């Protein structure tokens, strides 16, 4: 519709010029919509990335159906999110991925302890291959969830500092 109106105004302006009516051409020129210059595509200033201001982008992926492992994953996410060194993000961007796999140590004793496996990878984007950075296995008991989550966050921070050049 906008193109149609602009074309119609251009036609009126052209007719007024051809017919030699200066008043009509002045009115037609004033009635024409003003074009606002827009920057060329790709030259716009990118919006600031809030994760750059906050810290290293990181995501935690948990696999496992044990309650203690799920609580460890949640506590780890909370610890990373509370830290100014990290920005917990699920966006498709450059980030560290903490892949956590948990299972009960003994099937007959729920909530006593869980075995976990951690793998840290660097992800350029979801469409690219991930780069292995480090791994860890361990055992977590009910009373040490918070300290274990903090230890994993500290290890994640060391990896983030070691591979910080990947985020430049």
Automatic annotation (TrEMBL):
<protein>
    <submittedName>
        <fullName>Uncharacterized protein</fullName>
    </submittedName>
</protein>
<keyword id="KW-0732">Signal</keyword>
<feature type="region of interest" description="Disordered">
    <location>
        <begin position="29"/>
        <end position="62"/>
    </location>
</feature>
<feature type="signal peptide">
    <location>
        <begin position="1"/>
        <end position="26"/>
    </location>
</feature>
């Amino acid at each position: 519709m906008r193109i149609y109106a602009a074309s119609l105004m251009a036609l009126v302006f052209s007719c007024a010029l051809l017919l030699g009516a200066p008043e009509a051409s002045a009115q037609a020129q004033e009635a024409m919509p003003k074009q606002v210059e827009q920057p060329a595509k790709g030259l716009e200033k990118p919006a600031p990335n809030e994760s750059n201001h906050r810290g290293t982008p990181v995501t935690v992926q948990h696999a496992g159906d044990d309650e203690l492992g799920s609580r460890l994953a949640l506590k780890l996410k909370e610890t990373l999110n509370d830290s100014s060194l990290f920005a917990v993000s699920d966006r498709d961007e450059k980030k560290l991925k903490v892949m956590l796999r948990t299972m009960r140590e003994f099937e007959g004793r729920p909530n006593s302890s869980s075995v976990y496996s951690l793998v840290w990878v660097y992800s350029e984007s979801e469409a690219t291959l991930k780069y292995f950075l480090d791994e860890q296995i361990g055992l977590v008991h009910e009373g040490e969830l918070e300290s274990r989550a903090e230890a994993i966050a500290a290890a994640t921070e060391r990896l983030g500092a070691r591979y910080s050049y990947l985020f430049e």
